[in-house]
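Q: What does the assembled structure look like for these inputs?
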Amino acid sequence: MDWKWSYGFGFMCVVGDVSPRVFVGHSIYKGKAALTVEPRAPEFAALASGAFKLAKEGFLLLQFAPAASPRQYDWNRKQVFSLSVTEIGNLVSLNTRDSCEFFHDPNKGRSDEGKVRKVLRVEPLPDGSGHFFNLSVQNKLLNMDESIYIPVTKAEYTVLVSAFNYILPYLLGWHAFANSIRLNDTSRTNNATPRYGEDYEWNR
Amino acid sequence: MDWKWSYGFGFMCVVGDVSPRVFVGHSIYKGKAALTVEPRAPEFAALASGAFKLAKEGFLLLQFAPAASPRQYDWNRKQVFSLSVTEIGNLVSLNTRDSCEFFHDPNKGRSDEGKVRKVLRVEPLPDGSGHFFNLSVQNKLLNMDESIYIPVTKAEYTVLVSAFNYILPYLLGWHAFANSIRLNDTSRTNNATPRYGEDYEWNR
Amino acid sequence: MDWKWSYGFGFMCVVGDVSPRVFVGHSIYKGKAALTVEPRAPEFAALASGAFKLAKEGFLLLQFAPAASPRQYDWNRKQVFSLSVTEIGNLVSLNTRDSCEFFHDPNKGRSDEGKVRKVLRVEPLPDGSGHFFNLSVQNKLLNMDESIYIPVTKAEYTVLVSAFNYILPYLLGWHAFANSIRLNDTSRTNNATPRYGEDYEWNR
Amino acid sequence: MDWKWSYGFGFMCVVGDVSPRVFVGHSIYKGKAALTVEPRAPEFAALASGAFKLAKEGFLLLQFAPAASPRQYDWNRKQVFSLSVTEIGNLVSLNTRDSCEFFHDPNKGRSDEGKVRKVLRVEPLPDGSGHFFNLSVQNKLLNMDESIYIPVTKAEYTVLVSAFNYILPYLLGWHAFANSIRLNDTSRTNNATPRYGEDYEWNR
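A:
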């Protein structure tokens, strides 16, 4: 047993059943459909130096399910849509009277390109009380054409925006940078090796 | 002693007196009443896989107490109101000139349904300097009818909104997802097993 | 060695040189004065149960120093002002054209009450490019009368507001609640013991 | 083995491969150029007391690369610009119709002062759909004159602002203060030693 405890802070990880996977989502249930939003983690790649870099940004998975009967939703008929970080930015900055529209082709760049077409539309409700979300999926491979609508009130939209704003830096992986900041004393080493052209541009 | 320390980060938990319960609240004291806001944690359920999923969203407990004498409040006569995540969204997005109103029946779906009726009203103060909070509780079981008012200044409301915005992702359990993101190298495994239709919708 | 590792997460603390005190501040240097803002931690009290409760909210310490010569500030002549959580809310919600003013008496409730009078004024700059902060201290005990002005640009004010918004939940102690949320499986215990009147007000 | 586990929380650090460096950035790729934003950590200095203080605020490194061919960027010709905390505040508070401009001289205060001149301009796009970023670098030492433009949509700008707002308190080092707040019981010690003139200004 020769561990050394140092100044500074960081996160320690033990192999095993620590920090198990956690599935979270936030759902909005309405008369004709339900919408569930789930964050998906970013991915990292190890560098030869032992450091890590972000390999792929995370995203939000939207799942739309039509109602089968009152308060029962048919998740077998669900349609999904993945929101990229920039699309999240779009929804976060959407004003009360704004609309937006995203087009996705899950087969883009593959042989089946163009066979499946997904469109997510977010538009203000006529009475200004919120927005509706509409996901249309046209799947020529399955000869399927689905369109699911769900109204989202201003309060529900605020909760989504709050959750989106919270999770966005994690989807970008910036939390991993933030957590890696150490309290090490850099006062000596640093003066000796100024990083030219980087960080001394505005010092007096 | 054969622990292995791995790259990556996560939270470690030791059985015992670690991370004890912490009671926090934020109070606003006024001439005729006091209002205390306390967050209540979300709940998780363990899955067979060892992962966890959110079982129940957290909420905010509002406690209103009438004044008994100057700077003394009668907490025995307190009335409580639980704010759901969506109701929190409502308060967070409330504009200076907006009102809102929530109706709760703590016995909903039980035999005593309708016997207790709670109404929380948040309305702008006439001079535009803030909002007042009014909780009315009509309890036919106890033949009791209480209504407690408390004015909340714009600055006090800002503090509440800041605290609400901070705590909302925790009430949704999204922090547990965020904390479970690992720095593992996923560069190899992932290319081998693309998750179809999920995360490749917008890649070039 | 018979530690047990459990599911769930939390923070572990080792007696010793872990999480040392850290002094941070953010300073604005101008021609005639400098302003430094430093957060001060909230305080907790242990309960008999082993839990903790917030005992005292944290605050922000503002320190104003007049310039002695170009880019030199006379910190011996500094004047300080402690911003409470609600006063922070006031500054955070201040619009471009708004002013605010806080009066403090550090001896309030003591024999020297009224002998020292501090006034912090935050007012828009005439050209709309930001606000100035003015701290006036009248100290009859020392026969001293100081007034320090410092202009703060819109960008500098944005940085302050961002830092204030970040730190506010910590000053309220809500981070300690947030960090104490565990991933424990509550699915069984909870159905058995519904918390009456608290959290079932809005469930279907 | 005589560790003691105490109440309270904090971060534990193990010397070794824990909390490795993590490189994160967020990139915007357009037809004629790419822009990458990377946070750089603040620096701390150890005090004789064992405490730490912030020695230098962190910053954001902007990297602009011109396109070499479709979807290929020439990072050898990249130009960099370091955004200070206040400049970040400027970008965060920029309205849809606002512009801003920053001038940097990486050699300021050295013999080559004035030889390199960098200007970052952020201006609204003519159609109001976002802003363009323009970095001009005039380097008399290398007889080089580069100017790189990249349009940034409103949604992309929202993502930047969200990331900037998240990272700003870390660049200020305030997270280290926040993480050092302990759950220690201060109820006894504190009453004995009131900190005069600091924290009792507004207590009743």
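The longest helix of chain C spans residues 154-171.
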